[in-house]
Design goal:
Distance between the termini: 26 Å
CATH architecture of the largest domain: 3-Layer(bba) Sandwich
Shape: globular
Structural class: alpha/beta
Oligomer: single chain
Strand content: 15-25%
CATH topology of the largest domain: FAD/NAD(P)-binding domain
Bound molecules: FAD-MDL72527 adduct
CATH class of the largest domain: Alpha Beta
Length: 530
Amino acid sequence: MPISRLLPLLVFFFVQPNQQTLGLELEEEMGRQRPAVLIIGSGIAGIGAAEKLYHNGFRNIRILEASGRTGGRIRTQNFAKGLAEMGAQWIHGPSPENPVFQLSAQYNLLGPDALLEENQKIDVGGHPPAIPVIYTSSGKNISSPLVMNLTSLYFEWLENARNFTKDACSPNASVGSFLRQEILRSSKEWDKDTYELNMAVLRSFLNIECCVSGTHTMDYVALCPYGEYTMFLGLDCTFPKGFESLVNRIKANIPNDTVTLNKAVKRISWDGSFQGSDSRVYPVQVQCEDGDTFVADHVIVTVPLGFLKKHSEDFLSPPLPPSKIQAIKKLGFGTMNKILLEFEKPFWEPNSSYIQLVWEGSSPLTEPQKDLKKNWMKKLSGFVVLEPPGQLGHVLCGFIAGEESEYMESLSDEEVLSTMTSLLRQFTGNPELPPPVRILRSKWHSQPYTYGSYSYVAVGSSGSDIDSLAEPLPKDMDAAKPLQVLFAGEATERNFYSTTHGALMSGRREAQRIIDRYPEPGTAVSKAKL
Ligand code: 6YU
């Protein structure tokens, strides 16, 4: 290396007082080969960030992953005769604007239907596409037309909930309280014969909504910012070879040894001077649970919000600024789990895609009873019939959110299987219904590096908390200092939180933030931008 290029490094090493400007010069001088970038977490945010950095000439990148696998909340497992998704299942809004769709189409990972232009123009309103077959707890099969009106009314209310703005709603209002108000208003016009059933069907819709938002109750989900969540057009689709095929394909673009597995990060020390084995001094040092340490110029943190909630006070040193700690505390991160059941033979009609469960006597106006041991299964919203049945076997995938879902994680497979058998016998009205032959469940709340499923904007928080979470350190006012700790992951995307595309966008966003600091030779640096 010519001495002229080494000079700023030496100056940085020995002369600390004017560290701020020298830091910038260091970035400008280093080029893209040398800066050491550590990425914490190998979900789609982390892998996406690494790929973007690598593609832009960065060569000193390492991903530290706590678990023994990559993919994070994208997890495809063998089940029955095929593959099942334990985490993300659908591309929500598979149309050209969605980066997960773009990549999956580019890498030929999708089936022919997903690529049909007409399917890319459909608006599903953020819900898994399915025409339900509805069973009730007394073993009745309610025909869909009976609930069709109620369904369109319910979707209209949800749409109205999305149309609120900050000025037009109280900061403590929840989506749950809004829906209850609409239900009460509408119920005045229902006749006596349908009143109870309508209420029970709406309770079941709320159970589905809790799964969509990943929350215990819609009373926890803030109304004012609800509409900030943005949906792409497109009929949700799945991956024939599993969602993980996308992670693996992105990973193939970076060198094999970029990811270090089973390397849980315990603490990030930043704003310091840590000497690396190359004798260079770095501003950040990462300590792992096994005692290993790594130094870096930049660290991109992509750990889930659930993990940050548990460790926000001591994960960084100096600690996170109060605005970030507050955002972490206030934003919501709930549990949504899946219960996969394989049957020898299907008991459902060949063309059913969703089996909805309606508990007679239940109501959307009151919260379900708290006795979890007795009542946890009442929160199960229903079962998606997994396709293609020929390849996978006959598999139903149940969805359950909230505290009931967390309680379910504490039970054994046998207990859950036996409860599911009784429940399905009750709802189909067939006491002889053969039990499932196999069960597989997700347990996202018990995962020590996740502690839940995905984020939502909780009552008391707002989209600006998401922005706060996404802000890099040092904070804006120290813009002259080099970037040190950056934050990505689904919970940092104001309009696309809780999704894989939000996570991918967030990883790319933070990679771009670093890339902007290292202009290609010959490109003028805009100090204003920095
Ligand atoms: C989607 C879908 N989907 C179902 C279920 C779940 C999620 N999502 P990661 O966690 O992946 O990576 C972080 C890594 O960090 C991880 O590997 C850790 O081990 C590691 N780590 C943690 N601590 C560490 C440490 N200390 N040291 C080192 N490493 C550490 N999304 O697009 N379609 O169908 C579903 C679904 C059961 C659990 C989903 C879905 C969410 C995505 O899975 C998730 O956002 C991303 O994978 C996260 O990636 P990441 O990289 O950020 O973190 C109106 C309105 C409402 C809003 N909601 C609507 C959308 C609903 C979402 N859809 C849900 C439906 C299903 C079925």
